[in-house]
Design goal:
The complex is a heterodimer of chains A (114) and B (111). Chain A is mainly beta. Helix content of chain A is 0%, strand content 46%. In chain A, strands 2, 4, 5, 8, 9 and 10 form a 6-stranded mixed beta sheet that branches. In chain A, strands 1-3-7-6 form a 4-stranded antiparallel beta sheet, with no helix packed on it. The N and C termini of chain A lie far apart (37 Å). With 111 residues, chain B is an all-beta fold. Chain B has one domain: Sandwich (Immunoglobulin-like). In chain B, strands 2, 4, 5, 9, 10 and 11 form a 6-stranded mixed beta sheet that branches. In chain B, strands 1-3-8-7-6 form a 5-stranded antiparallel beta sheet, with no helix packed on it. Classes of the chains: A mainly beta (114), B mainly beta (111). At the A-B interface, strand 4, strand 5 and strand 9 of A face strand 5, strand 9 and strand 10 of B.
Chain lengths: 114, 111
C-alpha cells in the first residue's frame, strides 16, 4: 500500500516568507507526528495529532510554527516569517495508534531559507 | 530530563563481522525502546521494538538488548554487509506518547 508522502520534497524560500509543508499519512493511521532534523542531528519533535483529540504542540519552537490536520488525515505544517535557523529537513510520520506502535516516515521536505 | 545518547562517531566494521551500536538513556527506564535505520535523504525506517520486561529481541540478523541496570540498549547486526551501512537511530518512549530520539550512529561496513 501507499506509504507516507510529503510535499514539496525541496523548498527554497526567502527569509520572512511563509511556507506550507504537506503530509499525507497512511490511510487508517490515527497518530501523526511532525519532526525537524538538522544536519547530523536527531529528530526534534514538533507536534503530534491523535484522532480527534487536541494536538500536542509542546515541541513547536515558536508561535511562527503551526499545524493542522483536516478530517483526521492530511496535515499541513505552516511556518510564518521564516528565519534562516528554520532551515532543516521536516519529517512527517504516522502510526496506527499512539504509544509504542512503530512510526512510518515520509521522505521529508528539505527547507532552505536564504 | 529524559535523554537518549548514541555514539556520535561513525562506526567502521569489516564485512562479515558483528556490528554493535550503543544507546544509553537517562532517568527512569522507558517502557520501550525502538530502533530505526535512516539512509541519506530518506526518512527513518522502523527495525525493532524492545519492551522494558524483555531482555532481548531478534529479527533475522538483528538483535537488540535492553539492560535496565546499565540504562542501555545494544543493537547488533551479525554477518554485516555493505548494504547495512546507514545511520541507526534509537528512540525511547516518552511522556504524552512521544518518542525521544538519539542523534544516531553512522555505521560503515567495509567490503
Amino acid at each position: 500500500g501507499a506509504g507516507v508522502s510529503q510535499s514539496p520534497s525541496n523548498k527554497v524560500t526567502e527569509k520572512g516568507k511563509d511556507v506550507e509543508l504537506r503530509c499525507d499519512p497512511i490511510s487508517g493511521h490515527t497518530a501523526l507526528y511532525w519532526y525537524r532534523q538538522s544536519l547530523g542531528q536527531g529528530l526534534e519533535f514538533l507536534i503530534y495529532f491523535q484522532g480527534n483529540s487536541a494536538p500536542d504542540k509542546s515541541g513547536l519552537p515558536s508561535d511562527r510554527f503551526s499545524a493542522e490536520r483536516t478530517g483526521g488525515s492530511v496535515s499541513t505544517l505552516t511556518i510564518q516569517r521564516t528565519q534562516q535557523e528554520d532551515s532543516a529537513v521536516y519529517l512527517c510520520a504516522s502510526s496506527f495508534d499512539r504509544g509504542s506502535y512503530e512510526q512510518y516516515f515520509g521522505p521529508g521536505t528539505r527547507l532552505t531559507v536564504t | 530530563s529524559q535523554k537518549i545518547e548514541q555514539n556520535s562517531e561513525a562506526l567502521n566494521i569489516q564485512e562479515g563481522k558483528t556490528a554493535t551500536l550503543t544507546c544509553n538513556y537517562t532517568n527512569y527506564s522507558p517502557a520501550y525502546l525502538q530502533w530505526y535505520r535512516q539512509d541519506p535523504g530518506r526518512g527513518p525506517v522502523f527495525l525493532l521494538l524492545i519492551r522494558e520486561n524483555e531482555k532481548e529481541k531478534r529479527k533475522e540478523r538483528l538483535k537488540v538488548t535492553f539492560d535496565t541496570t546499565l540504562k542501555q540498549s545494544l543493537f547488533h547486526i551479525t554477518a554485516s554487509q555493505p548494504a547495512d551501512s546507514a545511520t541507526y537511530l534509537c528512540a525511547r518512549g516518552g511522556s504524552n506518547y512521544q518518542l525521544i530520539w538519539g542523534a544516531g550512529t553512522k555505521l560503515i561496513i567495509k567490503p
